[in-house]
């Protein structure tokens, strides 16, 4: 998929654990893990906003577009 999730990078930069972030933004650790791995098809703007607020970052710090990356089949 051409959209790359860099949440793990931002967590490391901020020295925040996934468990801690999940608790602060009100989602399960499992859902945060799925988001970190890029295995989700979408993220709600309120969730993205809470992540950005907690990590003091912009959405562009978390999401990256890489042209030419292979598309997953939607079928």
UniProtKB/TrEMBL annotation:
Highest taxon of source: Bacteria
UniProt cross-references to Pfam families, sorted A to Z: HTH_26
InterPro entries linked to this entry: Cro/C1-type_HTH (IPR001387), Lambda_DNA-bd_dom_sf (IPR010982)
Record-annotated HTH cro/C1-type domain positions: 19-62
PROSITE patterns the record matches: HTH_CROC1
Classification via SUPFAM superfamilies: lambda repressor-like DNA-binding domains (SSF47413)
Any GO MF annotation of the entry: DNA binding
Protein name in UniProt: Cro/Cl family transcriptional regulator
């Amino acid at each position: 998929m051409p959209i790359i999730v860099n949440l793990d990078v931002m967590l490391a930069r901020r020295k925040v654990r996934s468990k801690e972030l999940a608790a602060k933004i009100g989602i399960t650790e499992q859902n945060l893990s799925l988001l970190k791995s890029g295995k989700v098809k979408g993220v709600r703007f309120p969730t993205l906003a809470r992540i950005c607020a907690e990590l003091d970052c912009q959405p562009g710090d978390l999401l990256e577009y890489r042209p030419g990356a292979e598309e997953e089949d939607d079928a």
